[in-house]
Amino acid sequence: MLMNILMFVFTIFVAWGLRNVAKQKNKFAMAFTGVALAVCIFADVLIVATGFAVP
């Protein structure tokens, strides 16, 4: 349960980082952070879809 909540917090930090990188217009950093954000959002969707189930 704690790891699920930490994953949501990490996703927020990655999104915040993408916003900051977008201001600097660094294309490589934007692509790298965008992929990381996509993976985090996918993991968050899986967490919500399973109903926060603990294995």
UniProtKB/TrEMBL annotation:
Keyword Transmembrane helix on entry: yes
Superkingdom, natural source: Bacteria
Alphabetical keyword list: Membrane, Transmembrane, Transmembrane helix
Keyword Transmembrane: yes
Residues annotated as transmembrane: 6-22, 29-54
Protein name: DUF2759 domain-containing protein
Naturally occurring in which organism (per UniProt): Aneurinibacillus migulanus
